[in-house]
Amino acid sequence: MSLPARPANDRMIGGVCAALARRFGTSTTTMRVIFLASCLLPGPQFLLYIVLWILLPSEDKARSAW
Fold first, then answer.
1. Is 66 exposed, middle or buried (0-12, 13-18, 19+ CB in 10 A)?
2. Please, are residues 19 and 6 in contact by the beta-carbon 8 Å criterion?
3. Which residue of 18, 47, 53, 60 has the smallest Cβ count within 10 Å?
4. Consecutive H or E run containing 22
5. Can you tell me whether residue 36 is helix, strand or coil?
């Protein structure tokens, strides 16, 4: 299983929600709403977002690797 690539054109902040939306077959708006709703719960959501931003490759870099 490979990591989804962050899209080059559908980004807000880092493109993490857009990449996860592609991976799970949902819209980017839905994924962003889920992320914002999860921020109301206690936990490391912002840290997880930053970690995913670092770990998920950019679509441009993923294309050049092939």
1. exposed
2. yes
3. 47
4. helix 16-24
5. helix
Q: Inform me whether the pLDDT recorded for 23 exceeds 60.
A: yes
Q: Percent of the chain, pLDDT > 90?
A: 33
**Cα 9 off chain centre by:** 13
For residue 17, which amino acid is it? C
Closest CA to 28 of 55, 62, 4, 48: 4
CA–CA gap between residue 47 and residue 51 (Å, rounded): 6
60 is written with which tokens? 């441009």
Distance of alpha carbon 21 from alpha carbon 32, whole angstroms:
9
